[in-house]
Amino acid sequence: EVQLVESGGGLVQPGGSLRLSCAVSGFTFNNFAMDWVRQAPGKGLEWVSLISGSGDSTYYEDSVKGRFTISRDNSKNTVYLQMNSLRAEDTAIYYCAKDMGRLRGSGTYDYWGQGTLVAVSS
Amino acid sequence: QAGLTQPPSLSKDLRQTATITCTGTTYNVGNQGAAWLQHHQGHPPKLLSYRNGNRPSGISERFSASRSGNTASLTITGLQPEDEADYYCSAWDSSLSAPVFGGGTKLSVL
């Protein structure tokens, strides 16, 4: 059974940092790209970042470039999202999602975690 | 990044058929097709269809997808109360080297 379990969300002040983790099981982790997708309150799904299966390639949505860093530890079957310089508009539920792409992203996600809430507020 | 275009909302009667459209460009939907997700608030999104019509295991045959040019469509037949949800399309955009999502369509089953 495929499982994705996120952790690390919480309340943080503007300008602060958080590190999200997504522990994965049930498939050959390093064979697939992994993504972070978020949903702000009352808004739709928004792609945030993507890392290839090997970890060699990373991609970011424009508004998070230079502030967020995606990484993965294939020995621990875990993907991370380091979020710095957080802004109120980063407030959202953050989902990790298994990409159906192997070497790179595909825009198609067959498994999702339950999500972790990030709230940026003073 | 520019997204895909979906109608914000759609209302249909129980047991009727709903069709949701997703319009993109030759760099995304027109190139590799679109995937469709169902999202009930408080739960993770669920993949309904990918690459223009392939259904993952366990997804009802009431859900079908197709594509014509730069527009993808999701059709849900025999609408049930549990089909009331938000539906999103997504695709890889080769000009952006990034995925793009539609804004979502809120389906109400009356």
Structural class of chain A: mainly beta
- The share of residues in helices of chain A is under 10%
Backbone CA Rg of chain A: 13 Å
Largest sheet descriptor of chain B = 6 strands, mixed
Strand segment count of chain B: 9
Gyration radius of chain B, in Å = 13 Å
Please give the most extensive interface between any two protein chains, plus how many residues each contributes.
A-B, 25 and 29 residues
Structural class of chain B: mainly beta
- What is the averaged pLDDT score of chain B? 94
Distance between the termini of chain A: 40 Å
Low-confidence stretches of chain A: none
H/E element sequence of chain B: EEHEEEEEEE
The averaged pLDDT of chain A comes out at 96
Proportion of strand residues of chain B: 35-45%
Task: For the record, give the distance between the C-alpha atoms at the N and C termini of chain B, rounded to a whole number.
Answer: 35 Å
Structure description:
The complex is a heterodimer of chains A (122) and B (110). Chain A contains no helices and eleven strands. In chain A, strands 2, 4, 5, 6, 9, 10 and 11 form a seven-stranded mixed beta sheet that branches. Chain A has a four-stranded antiparallel beta sheet with strand order 1-3-8-7, with no helix packed on it. Chain A is an all-beta fold and 122 residues long. The mean pLDDT of chain A is 96. Chain B is mainly beta. Chain B contains one helix and nine strands, in the order ββαβββββββ. In chain B, β7 (85-93) and β8 (98-101) form a beta hairpin. The chains are: A mainly beta (122), B mainly beta (110). The A-B interface holds A 35, 37, 44-47, 50, 59, 61-62, 95, 97, 100-101, 105-115 and B 1, 28, 32, 34-35, 37, 39, 43-47, 50-51, 56, 86, 88, 90-93, 97-104.
Name its key features.
heterodimer, A: 122 residues, mainly beta, four-stranded antiparallel β-sheet, globular, B: 110 residues, six-stranded mixed β-sheet, 9 strands, 45% strand
